[in-house]
């Protein structure tokens, strides 16, 4: 086994022919400024090649369903293990996907309930026992005697239940065994006739075992023996289940049937507890839990529980599967740790394996600060960091060895309190025989790693090189190796604590937004005062209520009041029928008269199509088009400004409609994007590309980096200024026309900030930011803070949800929520300047702030 992963000639994206050796079975951290090429090396080169090799190792039959992956631009990679990527890309918004399903806990729960659950009658609620053959015969005699319509008694064996297939051989075998009739999809058919079934349709087939005429004396010994033998035969073919038909149809099971009302359970199998299966899902909402997908109107039949009554009537220690998935991670761990039923000897062997897997995954999620999440929490409501750690829980649970794990900033959304637990988990994953590659900026994670690879020195064309590498802590002592990252790690450069802060006055009129009685989600009826024209950091452990307070309560209320004419598109769980926001529960928010508008600057894309790009978003593109329209060539040809737009007909390439690529739907495979063969990806037609400004056509301008374009348009203030702001926030490496879908969440957020800085000074605006340091290097955080303070200096209010101590220590005001997550959170733990919060006992944030402020306190 090789000791190193050897990379030769990596040139993907901005990488400059990198040659590198990475130690195997170690934890290796990739650092560098934003856009330097870390992700290009870790994900687009190493992981992409690992994934490609895995797919090529499969059979040709399997490969046809997976498609072919292009080889990354690298000469050679040696010593590569099977690779698993756990990144920050958007997670499933499928309403069926939950924390329990993502981590596979729900799969193990279904097995546990199927094998150890105790069924109870959904009608009377009594515990259901197994029926013996004699008991089933007695029930058959009873219903035959009560027959009021003069029908006989028919005994059937259910042999196929809702499965696809032709079943030709099975039907032929029944005829050979001496049977004459079957019931196919509700219709009685003779086995002597040809029965043709559609292969891809689901069918239900019952074997007709015997028919007893009306009036048969079942007290007669011979008739009773005939009935008993028929039922026994039916159970043999029907898997211990028999169907009796007189006036009505009755399914009886040698497994579970209610003795009082004859309610018979279906087979208790794992699929009965699946809301993704027609055998387990509520028949009214089909397992969604709401009347319609993407709404909050609860299904009346199942009351949002998603499962059919039979599934909800199987209990473990008196709890059904929905009750357990409504528990938090911590509550679930306590429940399974003290469960009495599974300690019984008869259950111990069959439940040991699934129970071990469930406990392992619950422990990991608790270890990485996700103890406040409920198992039934929908995937679409999770943050990127939460989703990444949950996927990591699933991988940890699998206990694979010899694997290469590649993670993208796993500390995102994680309070310093929980960092240590996450790092410990990663080290455990390494110690069982795996290689861990982590793209990360978090200082604690870097110090805990075995090896550091620093990519730089700058971003975009200025990056793509290995500027420093080595074992930790040796690299910190090696003064021959220098880089911007090492400057910050060695404390030769720092984000400094402000010499003075903007003072927050007493709670006088006009100085605060006053939130009164907030009770949304886990908020404990709290009152919060946010100072206006100041920089406020909302802090606290994961799940403490930060996002609920800032977005569900503050933003949605302000947006409805300050922007009443704005509609939110289609009605979903976040909107009212009118399309306006549905604000979180709060008694009142005072001080709105002192605010003109509210802007939420989150990490959602700046656009959904390749046509959206940084130039269009910040408003520079319209001026650039005007410059092209004013050229002599354009005037001679009579071209108007629309000629240089890829959104309307005229100047764009109509084959790709200005996208530069053509999307090819592959039906059951992912959509494939192919470069347009007419314009070759240039987005415009030949005539438009013939018009040039300063010897460059419109496509060549779009291909410039923002840094290059700012210099190119130096003499055009209304273009240069907007691009200059993008450059200032560290986005100079992006192409002017880079399509929105290729931008990271952090890049999208900084573009939105730049657009706000480029607008006319409005003052009295409230800006709300959610973890804006995501994906940012120490030096980029410094640039971001400069932008934030500029917004505040112009008379605006900035409220930031953040864990990064460098951001928190520079804020004017800190509001710390907690003390824990989930039900144990939602309270105000500390309020004040960073110095004041650092002195508060009981505040986790304060304890960590104390360390970074110790020089100034």
From TrEMBL:
One of its GO terms (molecular function) is ATP hydrolysis activity. Transmembrane segments: none annotated. It holds the Pfam family UvrA_inter. GO terms for cellular component: cytoplasm; excinuclease repair complex. GO terms for biological process: nucleotide-excision repair; SOS response. Residues 245-488, 507-850 form the ABC transporter domain. It comes from the Bacteria. CDD domains: ABC_UvrA_II (cd03271). It is found in: Cytoplasm. Gene3D superfamilies: ABC transporter ATPase like domain, ATP-grasp fold, A domain, P-loop containing nucleotide triphosphate hydrolases. Keywords: ATP-binding, Cytoplasm, DNA damage, DNA excision, DNA repair, DNA-binding, Excision nuclease, Metal-binding, Nucleotide-binding, Repeat, SOS response, Zinc, Zinc-finger. PANTHER family: UVRABC SYSTEM PROTEIN A. Belongs to the ABC transporter superfamily. UvrA family. This is UvrABC system protein A.
